[in-house]
Amino acid sequence: MHDFIQYVVSYLSSDRSPGAAGNIFWATVYILVVFAGVSLAVICMNWLERKILAHMQVRLGPMRVGPHGLLQPIADAVKLLLKEDIIPADADVVVFWFAPFIVVLAAFTVFVVVPFGPAHAITDMNIGILFMLGVSSLSVLGIVTAGWASNSHYPLIGALRSSAQMVSYEVAMGLAVVSAILMTSLNDQGIGTLSMIGIVKMQEAQHVWFLFKFFPLGVIAFVIFAIAMVAETNRAPFDLPEAESELTAGFHTEYSGFRWSLFFLAEYAAMIAVSSIAVTLWLGGWLRPFANVHGPDVFIPYFWPPSDASLPRGALDLAFSFVPGLAFLFLGGVCFYNVRRMPKHPFFKIQTTGLAAFGALLGLVGLILFVPAVRDRVGDIFWFTAKVAGFMYLYIWYRGTFPRYRFDQLMKVGWKVLLPVSLGVVLCTCTWAMRSEVWHEMIVPLWQTLGDELHRLVS
Amino acid sequence: MIIGGILVITRRNTVHSALALITALLAQAGIYLMLYAPFVAGVQIILYAGGIMVLFLFVIMLISIERTIKERQFNHQWLIGIVAAAALGGLFIAVYVKGKTLFPERRPSYVEINNTQGVADLLYGQHTGTYMFSFEIASLLLLVAIIGAVVMAKKRI
């Protein structure tokens, strides 16, 4: 028993992820926390999507179920669990049962390497980014088998279209990722890294997010990845495979109740996963904005500098460390503002108290985030999550703004536009990164050879 | 992996065979991991299981499969098959039993070098890059395959 406690406590002083430190107990704890966190995020995304889409379309969205529809996702989940489980006649039962399982497995296994902080990942593989791309490409198999196992026309066509789309955009995604990995090798040893934590540490060492590096190459690579990731997750405007007006919900037409909710869960988890890739590769992962600017040292007793001596202690760090707490306090404030706006009618008493309680909860979380012990540990996770939340908002914004691509237009964009542009970005990144060597060892001798040839021709 | 392989050749339904092949490929990636080659394992999953098998499944689903399931399966060359399989099995057993004495200088050293960097050194290194030519030839071969497929499949205008 004492050994076990020793084993548990020995990890707390290490600065590596539990997988890298070999600590199975903490790795399991992290896995459970990440799984619960992603599921919670998917539930929040459900509510956010309906509310944000509604407000973009000048309507209100769910307002009845809880205060401002906050309990709507729970109602949806209960409904899906209680729905009848239909299996189509002549469908291949084993494959039909297996398909959502594959998709959910692929979507959730990816989170093993997602870096929420320098030590806040479940593990740090040498091939982190390769692992993420590979496992997320396994979800295509789940979709194809789902469409085929339904033994019906619409799902089959939807599945084939979806898999063709996902395979095409994986190429452009991979090339954009290659261009970002190239930028990680610009250190004094000339050796890059594929590990997710290593990529963010390279951005920290080079004092620039890869989004702004080699301007505009970083931006173009990021935009290519942003477009490809929307197509990869079958979201608007690339959601023809699951479009209701064309294909009556495509590959998941015949899935009802809990099986459909598994597809839904996997789709949103995949969205969060590819957004995490984009945030890690281009947006600096867990780094706060202007991570290398520290400002003068500040001293406030019991509050600043942080107890961990390796953390920076400047004025700008102090200012940015207030942001998590202030964000939650702001959200609590929004809740209380809406409490004031609630109709003053006895029928709304429960909703009003519910919303006030929710606002108080958010405010409490915000106040906890000011406590120094919590603030130092949670800062990285907050910045990473905030950036991924920004991407989620972009996803919902695209859905509310863009009309759907027709399938041949979709494939044309994937192969004829994104692929050449991403190839060009990789080439230009290579030459920019090695420009002095390219100039002296290739271009200058070329000029000299040309000059000699011309001399010989003329004279 | 062995179970996956056996399922590939014994299932009557082609899609079941393809799914069994996917599990066999994932097991292969696991074997690469056990040989301390995570880069090769990752690339195997991305390309083979996530790309090539998807295209396999495409073709399988686009042909009419109900007819082929009900057709009677026949195999008229079973005697030659048994002889060839027995010869191959005998070869495997002989190499396994006498393995270490056959290849003494090729004993693999499971050093914990970074596999990605090792592959890059062998391909692109200035003094250690001995496989560049064969790499380019292999990629040219793939290009020829793609061009051949396009030429054979395109419509005459």
Short description:
With 459 residues, chain A is an all-alpha fold.
How are the elements arranged and paired?
The complex is a heterodimer of chains A (459) and B (157).
Chain A: H1 2-11, H2 18-21, H3 24-56, H4 72-82, H5 93-109, H6 128-137, H7 139-149, H8 153-184, H9 196-205, H10 217-232, H11 244-247, H12 258-282, H13 315-321, H14 323-341, H15 349-368, H16 372-401, H17 407-433, H18 435-458
Helix pairs in contact in A: 3-12, 3-16, 5-7, 5-12, 7-8, 8-10, 8-17, 10-12, 10-17, 12-16, 14-15
Chain B: H1 2-10, H2 14-34, H3 38-62, H4 65-70, H5 78-102, H6 115-124, H7 132-153
Q: What does the model show?
A:
Chain A is mainly α and 459 residues long. Chain A has one domain (2-287, 370-450). Helices cover 68% and strands 0% of the residues of chain A. Chain A has 18 helices and no strands. Chain A has helices spanning 2-11, 18-21, 24-56, 72-82, 93-109, 128-137, 139-149, 153-184, 196-205, 217-232, 244-247, 258-282, 315-321, 323-341, 349-368, 372-401, 407-433, 435-458. The mean pLDDT of chain A is 86. Chain B contains 7 helices and no strands. Chain B has 2 domains: 1-71, Four Helix Bundle (Hemerythrin (Met), subunit A) (Up-down Bundle), CATH 1.20.120; 109-157, no CATH class. Chain B has helices at residues 2-10, 14-34, 38-62, 65-70, 78-102, 115-124, 132-153. In chain B, helix 1 packs antiparallel against helix 2 and helix 2 runs antiparallel to helix 3. Chain B is an all-alpha fold and 157 residues long. The longest helix of chain B is centred in the first third of the chain and has 25 residues, at 38-62.
CATH class of the largest domain in chain B: Mainly Alpha
Major sheet attributes of chain B: none
- CATH superfamily (homologous) name of the largest domain in chain B: NADH-ubiquinone/plastoquinone oxidoreductase chain 6, subunit NuoJ
The structure class of chain A reads mainly alpha
Number of helices of chain A: 18
Percent in strands of chain A: under 5%
Beta strand count of chain A: 0
Overall mean confidence score, pLDDT of chain A: 86
Helix content of chain A: 55-70%
Strand content of chain B: under 5%
